[in-house]
What we know:
By secondary structure, the chain is α/β, with parallel strands linked by helices.
Amino acid sequence: MTVRGVRGATTADNNTAGAILCATETLLEAMIAANQIASPNIAAAYFTTTADLNAAFPATAARRIGWQHVPLLDAQEIPVPDSLPRCIRILLLWNSDVPQDKVVHIYQGDARQLRPDLIQQNQTPEED
């Protein structure tokens, strides 16, 4: 079995724990559904936020959906000038035999502009 990376990104409406956790949970659920991921097959998950989001750890959303044994890590992104504000990014390391070109990466909210090439291939507008 191979380890695959599944990417996702979204934006929070504001810097509150509720907004961060809601956006993160919605994104995680979409990533899981699109790729039919079972939590025992997740090797690890890495979450980042832009500097303007510090009211909660996004990884808390993964614990809330039952990922009690998945290694999780939160970090802050480098502060690139003019980067997308209030952005949450996720990298799931997933043990799977799915070919890399069949992995579905999910971009929601204002983060859709980060990878429009993947939006067109993998998502319909209703998935936002």
